[in-house]
Amino acid sequence: MTYPPQPGPAPYGQYPGGPVPGNVGQYPVSGPPGPYGQPAGFGPPPPSGGGKAGLWIGVGIASVALVAFLITAFVAPGFLLGDDSESGGADGPLAAGGTARDLGDRIGDALQSGQPGAVTPLLCQDATDPLKKFAEGLREPQPPSYVEVTERDGTASAVLTLSGPALGKPEITGQVTATGTLANQETGWCWRDFQDASGYLGQIGAALNSGDLDTLQAMKCQNGPVSLGDPLADAVAAGGPYTARNVSFSGRMASADFVAAGGSLSVSTSVDKGRFCLLSARPGTA
């Protein structure tokens, strides 16, 4: 006894109700499947416009750089040729194109380094012995300070501050005013002379002890206070030897009491036109 076919799923590999389509069991047109677990490839990517976008970005960057270059050349044209205002680079005196003010700035920078090798190249060939001794003995960086430069008649003077140890006087704890002479020589501006307030007080004491009244009178400031009588002449007449006591420094001023067996003289000094001078002298009480 036979039974008619029953409806149900078609056998494996057959489609119900008709032949198997021609593409069943074939790979897609795009290519064979990739390795196990990966989908089939989709062919090469279509061409993109990234090349043109990169070109426009490069053109934009170049345009900005060109504009910046033109602005800099207009504002500071000297950068195209370099700065020739100084000879010898970071070392050596300033060339003729430099100024005394430029040398003052370099002196300040050299003192901050605290190194003799930074100061000695700024000295003139005929620099005085006190200046050479100071430059060669510098071992302590100096605090940043403004070096005041005054130029007149082809020369210039500088006013600066230094510490006691820099002057070879560690007993001085504060800042001491110093002056310098700048000269414009064939090689340019250079540092020629040097003096500090402590040394100037020493010169006053030496003049007192030697009885050199003319030197003491020449030390007086042009605009110093008027005093009754002549304390300097009286101190010289009283005789020495004088010893400096109560030495103090405050800004540009320095003071001391010169004491001897026959009396004492109180003096104060200041800076006038870049030079030390004797501001006042009066009989002391020490």
Description:
By secondary structure, the chain is an alpha+beta fold. It contains seven helices and eight strands; from the N terminus they run H-H-H-H-E-E-E-E-H-H-H-E-E-E-E. It has helices at 50-75, 100-113, 116-119, 129-137, 197-210, 213-219, 231-238; strands at 148-152, 155-163, 175-185, 188-196, 243-250, 253-260, 263-272, 275-283. The strands form two sheets. A four-stranded antiparallel β-sheet has the order 1-2-3-4. It has a four-stranded antiparallel β-sheet with strand order 5-6-7-8. The model is unreliable at 1-43 and 74-90 (pLDDT under 50).
Short structural description:
By secondary structure, the protein is α+β, with helices and mostly antiparallel strands. It has helices at 50-75, 100-113, 116-119, 129-137, 197-210, 213-219, 231-238, and strands spanning 148-152, 155-163, 175-185, 188-196, 243-250, 253-260, 263-272, 275-283. It contains 7 helices and 8 strands.
